[in-house]
Specification:
This protein is of the alpha+beta class. It has one helix spanning about 40-45; strands at about 25, 35, 55. About 5% of the residues are buried.
Length: about 70
């Protein structure tokens, strides 16, 4: 696998509406939520002792993709 390859993973089913618009840290196998927070620096601080983690922002389920003006 190359560095920029797209990988399809199955996220934990415990991710829900309460995580919308929040940052979430997952275990390296994507199975467990390690920490949640409102901003990236908080998540990085909470998981600073964790060697391998995946950090992402959970987007709300809108049913459509919002468009931005270019």
């Amino acid at each position: 696998m190359k560095k920029n390859d797209i990988v399809k993973v199955k996220l934990p089913t415990s991710l829900s509406k309460k995580h919308a618009n929040k940052w979430v840290a997952l275990s390296s196998d994507y199975r467990k939520i390690i920490a949640t927070g409102n901003n990236l620096p908080d998540i990085l601080k909470k998981t600073s002792n964790t060697k391998k983690r995946v950090v992402l922002k959970v987007l709300p389920r809108l049913g459509y993709v919002p468009l931005s003006d270019f």
